[in-house]
Structure prediction request, 212 residues.
Amino acid sequence: MKALLATLGVALALGGCAQAPVKPDLTSFNKAAPRSILVVPPANHSLDVDAPTYLLSTLAVPLAEKGFYVFPINTSKVILEHEGFYEGDQIAQQPSQDLAKLFGADAVLYVTINRWDAQYAVLTTAVNVDFDYRIVYRDGTELWKAHEALTYQPQSVNTGNPIGNLIAAAVNAALTRAKPNYLPLARQANFAALISGPTAIPDGPYKKPASK
Prediction:
């Protein structure tokens, strides 16, 4: 039992490790001063085929909250498919000039999904997301980029009994593994990258003043 608890402690410690985000140079962003941003379907390097659809649904809100006009996500996706662009990896290869011109957008947000998975280890399940973000201006100039990687692990339950604690941990791990909830992590990553973290983008022209 001591060996199991020690291994569990190591797994939890490793799950909490993360690299500090690097603050981007926003000179080009401020100079371009984009007003509208086209969000295209993410490129998917994970094994979950549904990951791009879920992540795409979370990207418009933080950009709108920062004060930018965001082209309607579903409408944009339909138009891109009509033009023959069905996969995020294919779209990621398209010049921003062509995509921006198609919609009349000032800039394009590209996102790459590096991880979207749940790892089972001993008595815990770690839910992982890892994204690369890029905003590229309509002339091809990269205005901003960021990287976010987050891990969620269910908190251990203290039942007051070592055996009970192990059983509770096993149940939590099984439940998380059976149905991992990625959306809160995805929203948290977007918020950190675009709004609250050191990589946050400047406010757009439609930013609402903070209420007093």
